[in-house]
Amino acid sequence: MTTTNDTTSVSPSGGRGAERAGQLETRGIGLVPEDERGGRPHQLFAVWAAPNVSYLSFVVGATLILMGLTLPQALGVILVGNLLWICTGIVAASGPVAGTSGSVISRAMYGVVGNKVVLVLTGWLIAAAYLALNWSAASVAGIGLAGRFGLPDGSVTDAVVICVIAGGTLLIAIFGYTTIVRLYTALSVLLTMVFVVVTGYVLAAADWSYTPAEPLKGTALAAALGTGLAIIASTPLSYSNSPDLARYLPRESSSVAVAGWTAFGAYLPSTVFTVVGALAATSLDMSEPEAALESVLPGWFIPVFVIAVVVNTMTNNGMTAYSASLSIQSVGVRLARIPAVLIIGVLGTAMTLYAILVFDFLTSVNTMLQLVVVVTGPAMAVAVTDLVLRRNRYNGTDLLGQQRGGPFWYHRGVHWAGVLALVVGGLTSVMWVNTSFWTGPIADALGGIDLAIPSGMIAAAAVYWAMTRALRSIPRI
């Protein structure tokens, strides 16, 4: 049996990609022709900065202080944890070379059939969970704003706010690449201006001499540092989809520039505003982040801040929904990209409603960020290792071909090196993770020290390197 080649059958509509902002992008996972590519790597800075000028960064930074870390310890965790944006940048470099989406490039790692199974987990479920996480953050703020305008408090209002935010986000994903690049360039400036104002008020109120009532020591300190690193690093590790937007750059674009601008665009705002969140927690009760931040802002500015929070979340989730729709196509579901966006949006909205109406927001954030790294860490390690072994030489036409016996068919459609690396890395992470939901046996034996990220990534990279060498599944270049 021979499967179809999706190089040309990119979507049922057969449309070309959008060429102007405001045009619907109908291209799915198909190869981006050279004559439809353009731009320069530096444009990726704004694309990645806009979603990371983030209210969620305030929340995460405050969490580090609430865990009992001192201010210098929290700052160290933030600076180190965000360095994993380098991995996001490295993976992005494969986009211009391959000219297709990250969910297709990963066929090189897992095989045509194996990749479909992996994408159900990494491209659908985790993407939907991140949609829910970010929409939850925006919805908490939006619901508060609705109350200020006199709307009745209750589940109906909450549900309406969530659905409006989700709808606006999906519009961004539907219009696609060109709109994202143009829109995010402007929004990165506007959001930065709003959050800089918030930063000014936070800095004025911060307790620069802050010391926890009972400073952590020994094993307790090591456990808090490990957990903090897992929370911070979980965000960059979730973006294995970074080639999706870089694929529109010319093939000859510098890989170093693509990697650098992607990583720097995300690292800078993520680090800065997570630090601000930590500073806020030195003097404010950040167990309710929105109320705490609003307490130091002038009344007239609060609606501006809340709107910025909502818009920021929409920019973040716009990229996630865009990539998740491509993952749906990569699995083999015969859907155009736009209906695929709507499907992932419905799933994420349902999870958001459940998170907001059933669970505590702050608990949901921390637990999810720690748990997803058992998958995203090893997956990122496999992607980076594969790129290094191949020296970033990917052929988009070969990747899009799904015929039996093709270069990425491997053994019955599965590249066991990638699958086993992901499984071993994930199981290793599970042994080291420490959350309120689950504590791995090794983490428990060591007093709760969470080393899920380094252990899982090292194990996955080592297994992938060894297996590809043993199977000779990657040609030596």
* CATH superfamily grouping: Hydantoin permease
Helix-strand string:
HHHHHHHHHHHHHHHHHHHHHH
Radius of gyration, CA atoms, in whole angstroms: 22 Å
What class, by secondary structure content?
Answer: mainly alpha
User: Percent of residues in helical segments?
Assistant: 55-70%
- Could you report the average pLDDT, rounded to the nearest whole number? 84
Q: Based on Cα principal axes, name the global outline.
A: globular
Count of individual beta strands = 0
CATH class: Mainly Alpha
CATH architecture: Orthogonal Bundle
- What is the overall number of helices? 22
CATH topology: Hydantoin permease
- Beta-strand content estimate: under 5%
Word description of this protein:
The chain is mainly alpha-helical and 477 residues long. It has a single domain (34-371), classed as Hydantoin permease. Helix content is 68%, strand content 0%. The protein is built from 22 helices and no strands. The protein has helices at residues 44-52, 55-66, 71-81, 85-92, 94-98, 102-105, 107-110, 112-148, 155-175, 177-205, 218-237, 243-246, 255-280, 289-294, 302-331, 337-358, 361-371, 373-390, 396-400, 416-432, 441-445, 452-471.
List the helices and strands and how they pair.
Blueprint: H1 44-52, H2 55-66, H3 71-81, H4 85-92, H5 94-98, H6 102-105, H7 107-110, H8 112-148, H9 155-175, H10 177-205, H11 218-237, H12 243-246, H13 255-280, H14 289-294, H15 302-331, H16 337-358, H17 361-371, H18 373-390, H19 396-400, H20 416-432, H21 441-445, H22 452-471
Helix pairs in contact: 1-10, 1-13, 2-11, 2-13, 3-11, 3-13, 4-11, 4-13, 4-18, 8-9, 8-15, 8-16, 8-17, 9-15, 9-16, 10-13, 10-15, 11-18, 15-16, 18-20, 18-22, 20-22
